[in-house]
Amino acid sequence: MADSVVLDPVDLHLLRLLQNDARTTYRDLAAQVGVAPSTCLDRVARLRRAGVILGHRLELDPAKLGRGLQALLLVQVRPHRRELVGPFVERIRALPESRTVFHLTGPDDYLVHVAVADMADLQRLVLDGFTSRREVARVETRLIFQQWECGPLLPTATSTSAASPAAPASTATPAATP
Predict the structure, then answer these.
(1) How many CA atoms lie within 13 A of 35 on its CB side?
(2) Which of 100, 101, 88 is nearest to 134 (CA)?
(3) Distance (Å, rounded) from C-alpha 14 to C-alpha 40?
(4) Which end of the chain has less Cβ packing within 10 Å, N or C?
(5) Strands 5-7 and 170-172: what pairing?
(6) pLDDT one-digit tens code per residue, 24-35
(7) Beta strands 98-103 and 170-172: pairing type?
(8) What pLDDT, in 10s, does the model give residues 79-98?
(9) How many CB atoms neighbour CB 153 within 10 A?
(10) Sheet arrangement for strand 136-144
């Protein structure tokens, strides 16, 4: 497990702002937080080096790109051994239809979020991309009718007293990357 990172109120304020708009300029961030732009740049760079900020990305609409059908695949791998896990995960991550892969506890070993063109494409993916693999014992498919994004990881300053400049420093542990 990665070491915890001590975050002061300025760091938390920067993270709250960036999680809502990663394109905010350092000048605007600095003005909103009350520090010099160079200080803001240094702090964000330190948060990146420490692994608190894992990156930023562009979000695309799968439906607008011809992948309007999304599903969750519950996958059981047998035997569930370390030497099979790594190659299996890398193969699944390399499939262009794969959006997210979760390693689970319980009867299913993996939950894979996929985006495909239609039912025939989903059937092809399940048969050719998953069940054709020797280690895959079972795949269950759940269609996604609709999805909603949830709130930010850090609550906004107005919804918690921990966001105030007088709040004590807290710790955060960076999420593990797949």
Answers:
(1) 18
(2) 88
(3) 8
(4) N
(5) antiparallel
(6) 999 999 999 999
(7) unpaired
(8) 888 898 999 999 999 999 99
(9) 10
(10) 98-103, 110-116, 69-77, 136-144
Interior/surface letters 106-136, b for 16+ CB within 10 angstroms, e for the rest: eebbbbbbbbbbeeebbeebbeebbeebebb
DSSP string, the chain: -PPPEEE-HHHHHHHHHHHH-TT--HHHHHHHHTS-HHHHHHHHHHHHHTTSS--------TGGGT--EEEEEEEEESS--HHHHHHHHHHHHHSTTEEEEEE-SSS-SEEEEEEESSHHHHHHIIIIIIITSTTEEEEEEEEES-------SSPPGGG-GGGSTTSPPEEE-PPPP-
- Supply the Cα-derived Rg of the chain in whole angstroms: 21
Tokens of residue 44, six digits: 């964000």
Rounded CA-CA distance 152/154 in Å is: 5
- Residue 22, amino acid: A
- Rounded to two decimals, the pTM is 0.75
Both structure tokens of 43: 């702090």
